[in-house]
Protein 1
Amino acid sequence: MTLKTLDKPSGTSQIIADSSPLIALAISGLFTHLPDLCGEVWVPQQVLNECLAKEGVPGFAEIQKLAKDGIIHVHSDFPESDEMIKGLSHLLDPGEAQAIKLALMYQSVLLIDEKSGRSTAKSFGISVTGSLAVLLKAKKTGVIPSVKSVVEKLQLHNYRYSKALTAQLLEKAGE
């Protein structure tokens, strides 16, 4: 996997997010900076439900507050009978399926970390980025002083990145 920079295509006003990167960015303390780093953040209702499934888990309070305050824009889910949703549900979790459909509908960048979800989104021509690209942008714009410390914090919460990807990230961050 190659780390891509977070560059939104021109004309794109929002980024569609899946639950895993939202939780990772909440854990890392970058959640409130997400609109500045990525633009408007939209999530399907299913993704928000996944993020808020268990009160008290890392990121819960931050995500709940930003959704309540309208910082995260919540989009109604597509019906389960939708042909694309039905097809994707055999491959992905419900939040990923909804996020991919929403990103395709609005021709938006998709913020997603899971390999299968990224691959599926790319097969539809959707531009994808992940939480590590957001970390890199946060470092380059001065929001955080160190990518390495944030990656270590995420690893304490069971986020796993390959050694090669981590080394590439740290090299791009100048660490």
Protein 2
Amino acid sequence: MMNLWTFNKKILLLVLILFVLPLLIVAFSSLSKIGKVGITVNVAPSTAKLYVDARKVSPGDVYVRSGHHRLEAKLDGFNAYSKEFDTDNSPKKVVYDVLLSPKNTYGQSILDDNPKLQQERENMGGAKFSQNSQALNVKYPFLKDLPLEGQRFTVNYGDAVESKIKDGDVAIALYVSVTDPSEKRNAIRSITEQLGVEPSDIEIIFTDYFNPITVKGNNESSN
């Protein structure tokens, strides 16, 4: 009789471990997400330590309350990452891809000795480049018409210098090269007429001479 009771207790314990305990874990996890907003955090190299509001988290889905937060990533030999962000009750989940770069020979040696970690960085870097390219083409549809070439000038694009770039946004500048300073205004005119871009709406950088729109007085004639 005692052996049968002992056997039944073992069966009951096994049922609790296999069925009841997982259900309790799922229920607790669901309750802990109530009133919180989900974000997804990816990091490369994956051995980096991630923190949200100084609380250590794992890569993947992280749940925080609506409001202001700080995301940090650290790994010996790599430049630290820190970003402040705000969350609301929007159903759209925000994804943060954290790409750490080596800051010294020790960090580079980690990548050299671990091809898997190096591949993680390359994969994330390629994905971010593709996303940025898509964002650029949407925001600046005239990119398909560049480079724009005139008889004595060429217009292309590059990184913005003075433009303020908001979080998650992408900004560029038009770079103009002219062989003759008299062609500066023709280049501006072509930007407006052929690209459909108002000079006041984008940063224009003359690589050889001053911008005739921003330069006043005798400076223009001397350049």
